[in-house]
Write a structure and sequence with these properties.
There is one protein chain. By secondary structure, the chain is an alpha+beta fold. It has 12 helices and 8 strands. The chain folds into 3 domains: 130 residues, Acyl-CoA dehydrogenase/oxidase, N-terminal domain (Butyryl-Coa Dehydrogenase, subunit A, domain 1), CATH 1.10.540; 120 residues, Butyryl-CoA Dehydrogenase, subunit A, domain 2 (Beta Barrel); 128 residues, Butyryl-CoA Dehydrogenase, subunit A, domain 3 (Up-down Bundle). α2 packs parallel to α4 and α10 packs antiparallel against α11. The longest helix is centred in the last third of the chain and has 25 residues. The N and C termini lie far apart (44 Å).
């Protein structure tokens, strides 16, 4: 953290930053027994889940997860410390936290819209990683058009009977709970949606089926509901307020507000990773690093990386924000496209060797680059496609006319 940024921290935040940095240095987890995926949404095996679940629990017990959540709901009761914890975990290059949907979507949404009973029941085990969450928004006929939900919940006494089909459900195969949008009225498009905290694992009437991606990974799933019973106490906010609650979820998913934790990252900065690859990739005369075009492309990525860092700093200074949501909302577009461009450049640098996949011992960086490039498309689609996000920025931030 730069000196000018650190000067803006409170004494408590500086103390917490020092604590987090020291704890991470002293408590780095052992090497995983199996290869870990690039992000939490590609976790496939029980071995991967158990390793990452244990790491999240350890971070939670150390106070690095849920830092800003009130103590009565299992959090640390601090202020402005979760961002610091996220930065320190990223800087330390430790593994990511597995319960990404619980931390970045379910917990903050429950905190805003939940009852006291729901907050006390659901938030602590989500923070610790004991209970994994998935997201039930997308449907085969309702991807980016989220208001076109057809999964239907029919009220019967104190229960709702749910029938329908959700798709692209990351972590659904390990999830105990799902944040679920279902139609409760066919008479209204937006006001006919309600939001539920739906049991998944082992729940009668719920079937989870893996979807194999082009990477060979099965982190995605489809979830089918056939007369699944959800008690009314698991409804979040009022009947017909599902669209409003979902907008809260998407605000956090798109990065416009801090969640309850995110975890680590690459041990090497993305730009340094590219430089190392270029220096180690042999060409007919010298290495890829000797190619001026490759060097220029790496520099362009470095410029974008620094611009994103400075935008994050600017977003924390209210007087510098012409619109409070512009920089946070544009982050979803710039970050996901930066990740995609970085991976594409890595594939180009590796050249023919980038056709070697992760199981090939000769694959550069253990096959990271083609895997990262293929996975990057999921990031530009998730949370509303980047095209949708550009529409939001144009209409809500710039005041442009709605597209037809």
């Amino acid at each position: 953290m730069a000196a000018d940024e650190k000067s803006k921290l409170s004494d408590e935040q500086i103390e917490f930053q020092e604590y987090a940095r020291n704890w991470l240095a002293d408590n780095a987890p052992p090497p995983p027994p199996v290869r870990l995926p690039i992000t939490a949404i590609e976790v496939m095996t029980v071995e991967q889940r158990d390793y990452l679940q244990a790491w999240q629990k350890k971070c939670y017990e150390a106070g690095l997860v849920g830092c800003d959540i009130p103590k009565e709901y299992g959090g640390g009761g601090r202020e402005g410390c979760q961002r610091i914890a996220n930065q320190e975990m990223s800087r330390a290059g430790v593994p990511f936290l597995i319960n990404i949907i619980g931390l970045s979507m379910a917990v903050p949404t429950i905190l805003v819209h939940g009852t006291e009973e729901q907050k006390k029941k659901f938030i602590p085990p989500a923070l610790s990683g004991e209970e994994i969450w998935c997201q039930g928004f997308s449907e085969p006929g309702a991807g980016s058009d989220m208001a076109n939900q057809q999964t239907f919940a029919e009220k019967r006494g104190d229960e709702w009977i749910v029938n329908g089909h959700k798709v692209w459900t990351s972590l659904g195969h390990f999830a105990k709970w799902m944040i679920l949008i279902a139609r409760t009225s066919r008479d209204h498009k937006y006001d006919g949606l309600s939001y539920f905290l739906c049991p998944i694992a082992g729940h009668e009437g719920v079937t989870v089926r893996p979807l194999v991606k082009m990477t060979g990974e099965t982190g995605f799933n489809e979830v089918l509901f056939q007369d699944a019973v959800v008690h009314d106490s698991l409804r979040l906010d009022e009947v017909g307020k599902g669209w409003t609650v979902a907008m809260t979820t998407l605000t956090y998913e798109r990065g416009a507000s801090e969640g309850a934790g995110s975890g680590g990252g690459e041990k090497v900065h993305p730009i340094q990773h590219l430089i190392q690859l270029a220096k180690s990739t042999k060409r007919e005369s010298g290495t890829a690093a000797d190619d001026p075009v490759i060097r220029d492309r790496i520099v362009q990525q470095a410029i974008v990386s620094e611009a994103m860092r400075q935008s994050q700093r600017r977003a924390r200074v209210e007087a510098l924000c012409d619109h409070p949501m512009r920089i946070p909302l544009q982050g979803k577009v710039t970050v996901t496209e930066f990740i995609q461009d970085n991976a594409r450049l890595g594939v180009d640098i590796a050249g023919a060797a980038s056709t070697l996949y992760k199981l090939d011992p000769n694959a550069p960086d253990a096959g990271h680059w083609p895997l990262a490039y293929m996975n990057s498309y999921g990031n530009t689609i998730a949370a509303g496609t980047n095209e949708i996000q550009r529409n939001i920025l144009g209409e809500r931030v710039l005041g442009m006319a709605k597209s037809k």
